[in-house]
Amino acid sequence: MSMRLLILGLLMEHERHPYEIRQTIKDRNWNECFKLRDGSLYYAVDQLREDGLIEAAEVVSVPGENRPDKTIYRITDAGRNAFQELLVAQFKQVSYPQHPMFLTMPFVRHGDPKTVENMILKQLGACEHRIERMHAVLELKGSFLPRGSALMIQGFILFSETEKEWLTTLLEEARSGKLFEGHKLTPAQLEAYLKYKQLPTDDV
Amino acid sequence: MSMRLLILGLLMEHERHPYEIRQTIKDRNWNECFKLRDGSLYYAVDQLREDGLIEAAEVVSVPGENRPDKTIYRITDAGRNAFQELLVAQFKQVSYPQHPMFLTMPFVRHGDPKTVENMILKQLGACEHRIERMHAVLELKGSFLPRGSALMIQGFILFSETEKEWLTTLLEEARSGKLFEGHKLTPAQLEAYLKYKQLPTDDV
DNA sequence: GAGCATATACTCAAATTTGAATACCACTCA
DNA sequence: TGAGTGGTATTCAAATTTGAGTATATGCTC
């Protein structure tokens, strides 16, 4: 998650202070598509400033005093160059779809079937809600959003629909008990396993 | 990425040394589905040992001397409990599909069209190869893999096929130039934008 | 048989992320 | 009137990941 690209990208539009960046990300519903923490936002901003890719445009003191002043940042020429590089770098990343639940799958068979079933059910519910929410966003914004942003959300919906399909299968298999199969290998399976070990693995 | 879950999960099967864990992950083609670095593997192993979740079962000196000895680890009772908790925690994660290219989308319009088009094309190629590779894995292993592992790979293929579809759209739009639209907002768009700002955002 | 890649088996500093905490203001609800 | 909730705006230590480096053995080619 290149926080730097995110920040520079937003500053390509116009100058902003960190909290405004955070808000913009929320307002645009991007936090549904990738996760962000305040901590790394402020950290990245500091780094960018140190590297001369952004600079303070203005420091605003909010009336009411004791609150920290906000610093408004602007992208520099070096920053605009860095943005182009980061954009390409992000494209170049070995990049494949990821889902936190992938990691649980190889191990569910060691878990408690009833608990697992419930967890899958919850994920499925969350997934369905997410699809609805994002459809609402697209309907309201789709036509006037920058095309790339609209396509991101559209992609996110597509992926979420695939997720729904996958979770539905998982749920069925959890209910039938099939999901928890595979504790032991029969000799035939073992032989197949040895064969499979020779499959080429593309380094990822 | 809970390295801990991954390690404990593998040690639920039988004892292993760190390098063997690394190998197993590769042999099972899991590195296609989630990314792992040696550094975090060894770090996590150390943590797990400190926490008493795993213990050294045996230290093996390899003939030929000067190589570091391998320590074979075994999961403890505390570790088995921790495994169950980590499994549930992983299920509970706010969990949605992610793709590194999502981050580029809102900003492609500031990038160089020709470069962007090429990058998308490359991703599409990589994606197609991945699908083929994973199909080969499933065909060879699908029947004898623990069901959960097979479903993970199946899910990964499903997601990759969705990715292919999405990338194809992106490519078309890059070629037609539509992808790069959205530099300025018309007054009507601005009004729509203000409306959209009021959309509820589920915190993620 | 010299050179070179590849596999084994890690180690470590530096970069980054996480998660929680801080502090202030404005609002409501009882 | 004061207690609690939510938004604004950030800081920071601790946890974790990254990326590069180390060192040896083994196999392969020219």
From TrEMBL, chains A, B:
UniProt xrefs under SUPFAM superfamilies: Winged helix' DNA-binding domain
Q: What Pfam families does this protein's entry cite?
A: PadR
Q: Where's the Transcription regulator PadR N-terminal domain? A: 7-85
Q: Which keywords, in A-to-Z order, does the entry hold?
A: DNA-binding
Matches recorded under CDD domains: HTH_ARSR
Recorded GO molecular functions are:
DNA binding
Q: Tell me which domain of life the UniProt entry assigns to the organism this sequence originates from.
A: Bacteria
Asked if DNA-binding is a keyword of the record, the answer is: yes
Protein name, as recorded: PadR family transcriptional regulator
User: What organism is listed for this UniProt entry?
Assistant: Paenibacillus montanisoli
Q: What is the lineage of its organism?
A: Bacteria, Bacillati, Bacillota, Bacilli, Bacillales
